[in-house]
Amino acid sequence: MVTCPVSYLFSGLHAGDHCIGIIADPARLDIVTTDLGHDRLRNRTITLLVSAVLIGGCIVGPITSLLGNRGASRGAAG
């Protein structure tokens, strides 16, 4: 028997225990994982996309605002 410690970190409102199953590829028995990550894959993908859009907006928004203000001040001065 081979044992390996694992740690999972995820967010969400959940009351109760998590049921975790072992997943292994029959062709590659050295690669073993659990189904907890697969069950939450859609949730994690949506969270990643929303975070990327918010971070992108926080970066692009101020740059766009600065460039827009610079063009408006040139028009008023000229």
Characterise the protein shown here.
With 78 residues, the protein is an alpha+beta fold. The chain has a domain at 42-78. It has helices at 36-39, 41-77; strands at 22-25, 28-34. The longest helix has 37 residues, at 41-77.
Characterize the overall form.
elongated
Alpha carbon gap, first and last residue: 79 Å
Structural class based on helices, strands and sheet pairing: alpha+beta
Taken as a percent bin, the fraction of beta residues is 5-15%
Order of helices and strands: EEHH
Strand order of the largest sheet: 1-2
The helix fraction, in percent, is: 40-55%
Number of helices: 2
Largest sheet: 2 strands, antiparallel
Characteristic key phrases:
two-stranded antiparallel sheet; 78 residues; alpha+beta; 53% helix; 14% strand; elongated
